[in-house]
Write a structure and sequence with these properties.
A 9-stranded mixed β-sheet has the order 8-15-16-14-13-12-11-9-10, sandwiched between helices. Helix 9 crosses helix 15, helix 12 crosses helix 14 (251-263) and helix 15 packs antiparallel against helix 17. The protein has helices spanning 18-27, 41-52, 62-70, 72-76, 93-103, 118-121, 142-145, 153-159, 174-180, 184-187, 192-214, 220-233, 240-247, 251-263, 292-298, 303-308, 313-330, 377-386, and strands at 2-4, 9-11, 30-34, 56-58, 82-85, 110-114, 132-136, 165-167, 267-272, 286-289, 336-342, 348-355, 359-365, 390-397, 401-406, 409-413. The protein starts with a strand and ends in a 7-residue tail after the last strand. It has 18 helices and 16 strands.
Length: 420
């Protein structure tokens, strides 16, 4: 839901992942919609419940949650199909659901939502294997906010299908888009200060309320410091020892706590891509925030700050592109892995997308309106290493036109992330 400022009324913005959820309900016994709190899971689940005439239950309600925890069999006994919101708050339900769908394997028995990574925290990987389809719903994508169809850019990258020279037009309000992010409740706030306050409060609530539900963490003050430090590290190589030293924990605890932030869909660690024949690689992970607006709020970066110091825009922009790629990948039926590349010669590629069987795309992110030959240094190195597996390289930049710079390499405006 969002407020239509021109009409001062609440409107529903369609989610591009909805068709994938409907398809899964038609052939899978349990379908899980997972993603951050306040990303729109409840709105989508309610919409599907009404369309399919399914009962809707939420475990955010105390009486429902206590019933589910104390008597999971009784809680589910009378439902042929049902929607259960925030299911991670009663993990006792999973074994009961498994038994029910094993006895009656019709598709679409349960549509569940969760604000933690269920396969990491609540579900044993073996317990529901073959019975569940887990689909991520992230905050709004730019395509959704513009009421556009699903962008074509990933398909074009994997087929290297771009016009040699095509005017696309300038990317409107890029800084505003990046600072705004995609959380529906944050976007509803017209005042920038009010939006930043909501986003910072959101992170604090996750730390103080949601984390204790999924893990025993006594030092919540240190966890709040970790979120602040994670924001500083966004887009950079991770060093768990250095992070731990700054907040008084060891490297193993820093690693475990970062995993908790991942499970709550605040951040994601991006693995280092490697090739068996290549030895001189940096193997450290990089850290990325799921939402650029949240990252900006935690780092207290706003339009005024960026007017004074444009160099602080780079990490936000990289997070913004990462988030858009995640959202595009979530609506697809094929699997796309996202990694990064860096070698000891300091050649690097921000994102490497890999799709079976061994199709590789490289993406560099630049805040400039002009591309330079040196911007393709890492992509050229990647092409050299991958050989025939290399499909396409792209520098996404703040320009107006698609340009082919080298064979299989293009400069692409940011606008292509949300427009056809």
């Amino acid at each position: 839901m969002l407020i239509d400022k021109s009409k001062n009324s609440t409107v529903y913005i369609p989610r591009l992942v909805e068709n994938r959820v409907k398809t899964a309900l038609a052939d899978t016994r349990i379908v899980a919609i997972v993603g951050p709190r306040q990303s729109g899971k409840t709105t989508l689940a309610r919409r599907l419940a009404i369309a399919d005439e399914r009962p809707y239950l939420t475990l955010d309600e105390t009486d429902q949650r206590e019933f589910a925890v104390d008597d999971p069999d009784g809680f589910l006994r009378d439902y042929k199909s049902v929607v259960i919101d925030e299911v991670q708050r009663a993990p006792e339900l999973f074994l009961t659901m498994k038994r029910i769908v094993d006895d009656d394997p019709r598709p679409g028995r349960f549509l569940i939502t969760g604000s933690v990574d269920l396969l990491q925290r609540s579900i044993s990987p073996d317990s529901l294997a073959g019975r569940i389809d887990v689909i991520e719903l992230m905050p709004f994508s730019q395509a959704e906010l513009c009421h556009n169809a699903a962008p074509e850019i990933l398909d074009r990258l994997f087929s290297c299908d771009f016009p040699v020279l095509r005017m696309v037009g300038r990317t409107e309000n890029l800084v505003e888009r990046v600072l705004r992010g995609g959380y529906p409740t944050a976007i509803e706030r017209n005042d920038d200060n009010r939006r930043e306050h909501w986003l910072r409060t959101y992170a604090e609530i996750l730390t103080n309320r949601d984390l204790p539900e999924i893990a025993r963490v006594n030092k919540t003050d240190n966890l709040n410091k970790l979120i602040d430090l994670a924001a500083v590290y966004s887009g950079r190589l991770l060093n768990h020892s250095a992070i731990g030293l700054q907040i008084g924990i060891d490297s193993k605890t820093a690693d475990r706590w970062l995993l908790l932030l991942e499970n709550l869909f605040l951040v994601r660690r991006v693995g280092a891509w490697h090739h068996n024949e290549r030895k001189r690689l940096v193997k450290s992970q990089k850290l990325q925030f799921i939402d650029s607006g949240l990252l900006a709020a935690i780092r207290r970066i706003n339009a005024t700050v960026l007017r004074r110091d444009r160099t602080r825009f780079g990490a936000l922009l990289e997070s913004f592109v990462f988030s858009e790629i995640l959202k595009m990948a979530a609506i697809r039926s094929d699997r796309i892995n996202i990694n990064h590349y860096r070698d000891l010669d300091k050649a690097e590629v921000d994102f490497i997308l890999e799709r079976a069987p061994g199709e590789i795309v490289g993406i560099e992110v630049k805040a400039r309106a002009t591309v330079r030959p040196n911007d393709f240094k890492g992509l050229k190195r990647l092409m050299e290493i991958c050989g025939k597996q290399f499909t396409c390289g792209a520098v996404i930049y703040d320009g107006e036109k698609i340009q082919q710079m080298y064979p299989s390499m293009f400069a692409i405006p940011f606008k292509m992330l949300w427009e056809a």
